[in-house]
């Protein structure tokens, strides 16, 4: 697979990316995937391709009575991996990277210098969980609320690291899959992926007290159900504009044709 290693480079959304983000925002606001009135938090990486997507979701939502308009909560801990010397380099295949020399503690290898390590990324997602999410899952907290909907807008690699971290907080038997066409065997090796604006839908719900005599997982009294993986139904029928326009950086000052007839 060939890919653009954007990493922590603060690149703008393309015109096609903006169209995808608008589709996502409209889809979430339509209540097709969740009850938008139950959304309590929208977190986002502070890199603009994620931030603009999150801001679009906020703009599409109707603020609850008596509350200020929605704004995303920006977190540097949700930034994408820093690819070091390969930051922004095009046409570098995953296979080529896998053939590099074994990584050092700083994530470096032959031709891949100063890359952020796996340990560093895990530390970042742990910080994000501790600072923003753990209190929401405390049943004994005075401000605990049921039926909270939390949206996290970030990037493919850091989201996969976050998934792996989250998975380790539950008893394995309390992680269930409600995805069509996923067998038990696939569940054991499930590795989510994210297309542009594709999302992973998780339902985390309380089960009861932690089991005695077993290893004490952080979320031992909870169940996590995977309800959708790389969900992109909102993109059906959307095609990239030809002639390089779809791949060009989006200019917020640019108007759509329909705007000239208002």
TrEMBL record:
Gene3D superfamilies: Phosphoglycerate mutase-like. Pfam families: His_Phos_1 (PF00300). It comes from the Eukaryota. GO terms for molecular function: fructose-2,6-bisphosphate 2-phosphatase activity. Keywords: Hydrolase. SUPFAM superfamilies: Phosphoglycerate mutase-like. GO terms for biological process: negative regulation of glycolytic process; regulation of pentose-phosphate shunt. GO terms for cellular component: cytosol. PANTHER family: FRUCTOSE-2,6-BISPHOSPHATASE TIGAR. This is Phosphoglycerate mutase. It comes from Penicillium olsonii.
């Amino acid at each position: 697979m060939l890919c653009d290693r954007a990493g922590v480079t603060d690149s703008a959304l393309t015109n096609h990316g903006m169209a995808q983000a608008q589709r996502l925002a409209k889809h979430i606001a339509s209540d097709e995937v969740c009850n938008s009135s139950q959304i309590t938090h929208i977190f986002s990486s502070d890199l603009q391709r994620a931030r603009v997507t999150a801001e679009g979701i906020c703009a599409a939502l109707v603020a609850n009575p008596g509350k200020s308009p929605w704004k995303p909560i920006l977190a540097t801990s949700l930034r994408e991996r820093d690819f070091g010397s390969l930051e922004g380099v095009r046409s570098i295949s995953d296979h080529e990277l896998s053939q590099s020399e074994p990584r050092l503690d700083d994530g470096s290898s032959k031709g891949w210098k100063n890359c952020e390590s796996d340990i560093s990324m895990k530390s970042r997602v742990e910080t994000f969980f501790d600072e923003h999410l753990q209190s929401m899952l405390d049943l004994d907290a005075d401000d605990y609320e049921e039926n909270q909907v939390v949206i996290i807008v970030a990037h493919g690699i850091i989201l996969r690291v976050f998934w792996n971290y989250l998975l380790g907080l539950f008893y394995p038997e309390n992680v269930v899959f409600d995805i069509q066409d996923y067998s038990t065997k696939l569940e054991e090796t499930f590795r989510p992926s994210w297309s542009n604006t594709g999302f992973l839908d998780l339902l985390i719900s309380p089960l009861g007290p932690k089991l005695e005599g077993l290893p004490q997982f952080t979320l031992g009294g909870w169940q996590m159900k995977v309800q959708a993986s790389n969900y992109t139904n909102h993109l059906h029928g959307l095609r990239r504009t030809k002639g390089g326009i779809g791949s060009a950086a989006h200019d917020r000052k640019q108007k759509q044709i329909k705007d000239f007839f208002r």
